[in-house]
Amino acid sequence: MSIPNHILEQLNSQADLISIIGRHTTLKRAGNEYKGCCPFHGEKSPSFYVNPQKNIYHCFGCGVGGNAISFLRDYESLTFIEAVNELSKQTGIEVPKEEQQNVSYQRTKQPTVKPTPQAPTAPPSEGSTPAGQNQDNSASSYSDAFVYDEGHYDNYPPVDVYDSVPYSPENDGLDYQSSSDNGYPPSWLTDTDAITKLHNLNPAADEDGNLYELLEQIQQFYQHNLATHPHAKHYFLSRGITEDIFETFGLGYAPFGWQHLEHQFPQDIEGLKALGLVRQSESGRDYDLLRDRVIFPIRDNQGRTIGFGGRALDNEVKPKYINSSDSPVFHKQHVLYGYYESRQQRADSWLVVEGYMDVIALYQAGIYGAVASMGTAINESQISRLLTLNPTLTLSFDGDGAGQKAAWRTLEVALPVLADDKELRFLTLPNNHDPDTFIKSQGGDAMREQIANAMPLSQYIFAYLSERYDLTLAEGKAKLMSQVRSLTTALPKGSSFRYLLNNDIYQKLGGKRSQNVEAKDALLDFDGDMTISQQLQLCFLFQPRTLIDDPIEIIWQRAGINGLHLPPHIQQKASPDVLRPIAWEDLQDTALLDIVSTIKRCLNYLPKDANAAAHFILSNLKPLTQETLSRGWGGFYKTLTARNVLSLDELVENLVMQLLKLHLQKKMQELIKNPDHIKLAIVRKQSQLLNDWLRAQQAEQSAQMVTVQS
Predict the structure, then answer these.
(1) Angle at the Cα of 414 (from 409 to 416), degrees rounded to 5?
(2) Which of 75, 329, 385, 671 could be stapled to 680 by a disulfide with Cβ–Cβ 3.0 to 4.6 Å?
(3) What does the buried/exposed string (b/e) look like for 447-460 if buried means 16 or more CB atoms within 10 Å of the residue's CB?
């Protein structure tokens, strides 16, 4: 299977190389790069570097290097096609199924062009054929084809009107006004060299076209139009954009006329249609997508033009913004506007904004790293990529309802990739400003200050939700905490931020006593004679989503037991079974295992209401477990709600730790009675690590209590 090079380039540039390699070796940030011990030759001193900007790796020890595809192929032993398919799954970039799909297209035969300048004459009378244009509508002179009628600006016809007009040379829509006073086209349109350059009139012109090359020519055409149409240029100048930025971002203008691109690129109609820049009306007539709009070229990570965004000059025209459609070289969900330009300036911090003008205004103010998505919400892979370049990512959305909904959606998308070393911050500018208007009003330094003081994720969640619930009522607090718990379950497995965020929200709700203390007191009030297992079963029934990430595995990881360092002679003789984390089955508690396995099986089907979810779980338990728990559930639930207990996270963790301690003690006693020195040494080490971590947790909780009381 032949895969186009542009697809391979997209896969390698969009891949999360840090995450891919991080599965096999520990990488730590070192300036703008990451370094670690080489996974290929097992060194002890780090000489393996990964560059997230270029998305490549290199080892200075063994000399190995490459990109995402080569790593998957060489280290994970995947075939080339398997590596490509794996990256396709991770990035969402589709690999063409047909071998022939690429960036080439068939060009039509070169038309005859006679650009000989003619003496000025009066404009053609209405109904006559313009000079230099044949009756068959083929353009023989670009001089007469480009005459602009200023009257069209205020009365621009919609597509359905275009369909109803007879198709004749007189109304082909290619009336453009020159910037000169005599009414004739600018010199660049009648200059032989200019026309030759624009149309690539050379012996190779009849060969297959390339979409990237065509896009570059279209971008130059649009950019040249900006210089020759003062009203379009005035739009950017009135927005405070300087002319040097025109060049940096390649800004342009798509003129009036239904078919200006077809006339400008007559050999490339197939390519224009493949790019979605030329479309077909219901009556079967071709028309240009972008007309009388200022143009924002969209570039990929290599700086190549891959699409265009167009903004209407008249604010009454809807839609205000139009992006060119997806094509073989343009996939909206994988492109961030401004990313290439920011990388060129070696941006070290990143800011997600809503629009093209926000990106440009920030860049012009010397604030590099602003990017915008292509009319769709920014996705998980894009957020992951930006967090790889810098562990702190700021989101700046408008303060209106639509902007805040977009910010919240982005928050939800980001949670699965928000590891403990990553941070998401939120910037809502005052007085309904966006970055563009704020910079014009307050200046670049004030904008930098706003970015530096952007709101942390924990504060933003509380601020956002507190506006939607009545926190003077216990019911409002319960609903808020329910949504917070639902959010935090999306965080990466083993996230410490989950507990810390929940605890932070609890404190913000005004509770003076620890939720853990309240929960313990509630259990004692309810039934002080319950065993640890029975308490834990009721806790799981009250808060089943605690089992989304297995508590035993989390404790095993946080206590450092999963990375147990053993003497070589013990490591060699130890069986894999004794080194694995304890499973619920190992605890040999039938009722506890029944409720854990039932909850894990039913998690995706549980109602949001805690009481309803508990009864759903009870109905799926074995009869004996169901009978035992049903007797205690009503009183337990009533006791917790009476004390306004919103979460049992910390209590569940403590109960699980106690069960693990008892299990390890019992296991050591058995190994002493029936000696197995290797297993005994391992279990003792596991027990020691668990106890050390438990003491550290208790000390931290005591310190927090002192802080709260003071």
Answers:
(1) 125
(2) 671
(3) beebbeebbebbeb
Q: Which two tokens stand for residue 517?
A: 């203390």
Q: How many CB atoms lie within 10 A of CB 641?
A: 16
Tokens at 303, concatenated: 């700086």
What is the per-residue DSSP string for 148-175?
B-GGGGTSPPPHHHHHHS---GGGSS--
Locate 202 and state its tokens: 């050379």
Question: 352: which strand partners?
Answer: 371, 395
Q: Which residue has the tokens 């998690």?
A: 603
The structure tokens 């000696």 sit at 675
Burial class (CB in 10 A: 0-12, 13-18, 19+), 421: exposed
- Which residue in 458, 461, 438, 460 sits closest to 450, CA to CA? 438
Residues 6+ away with beta carbon under 8 Å from 201: 110, 113, 195
Cα–Cα distance, 481 to 462 (Å, whole number)? 10
DSSP helix/strand/coil, 23: coil
Indicate if the pLDDT at residue 97 is higher than 70.
no
Contact 480, 509 (CB under 8 A): yes
Place of tokens 């070289």: 329
Among residues 231, 229, 328, 319, which one has the least CA distance to residue 271? Answer: 328
Q: Which three-class secondary structure state does DSSP give residue 306?
A: strand
Which tokens belong to 177? Answer: 């006004």
* Beta pairing class for 423-427 and 370-373: unpaired
Among 47, 31, 28, 30, which residue's Cα sits nearest to residue 39?
A: 47
Cβ atoms of 371 and 350 within 8 Å: the answer is: yes
Yes or no: say if 14 and 91 are a contact pair by the CB < 8 Å rule.
yes
Packed helices 457-466 and 474-488: angle between N→C axes, nearest 10 degrees: 140
Cα atoms found within 13 Å of the Cα of residue 46, Cβ hemisphere only: 13
662: Cα within 13 Å, side-chain hemisphere: 13
Tokens of 109: 């035969």
| Rounded Cα gap, residues 135 and 172, in angstroms | 13
The DSSP bridge pattern shows strands 48-51 and 33-36 to be antiparallel
C-beta of residue 603 within 8 angstroms of C-beta of residue 547 = yes
Best CA proximity match to 107, nearest among 3, 202, 4, 11: 202
Distance CA 323, CA 290 (A): 9
**What is the rounded distance in angstroms from the CA atom of residue 365 to the CA atom of residue 231?**
25
CA 125/CA 179 separation, integer angstroms? 22
- Contact by Cβ (8 Å): 558, 498: no
Walk me through the domains of the chain, giving residue ranges and CATH numbers: 5-102 (3.90.580.10), 142-325 (3.90.980.10), 333-458 (3.40.1360.10), 474-709 (no CATH)
State the Cα–Cα distance between residues 620 and 601, nearest whole angstrom.
Answer: 10
Angle between helices 610-618 and 623-642 (to 10 degrees): 170
Higher-confidence residue of 565 and 586: namely 586
CA distance 152 to 291: 12
Residue 360 — pLDDT band, cuts 50, 70, 90?
A: very high
Q: What's the DSSP call for residue 206?
A: G
Cβ–Cβ under 8 Å, residues 612 and 482: no
Triad 458, 459, 464: Cα angle to 5°: 105
Q: What are 469-526's pLDDT values in tens digits?
A: 888 788 888 888 888 888 888 888 778 888 788 878 877 776 544 555 666 666 655 6
3-state secondary structure 659-676: HHHHHHHHHHHHHHHCCC
State the DSSP string of 462-497: HHHHHTTS-TTSHHHHHHHHHHHHHHHTTSPTT-HH
Q: For the segment 284-325, what is each residue's pLDDT rounded down to a tens digit?
A: 899 999 999 999 999 988 788 999 999 999 888 888 999 998
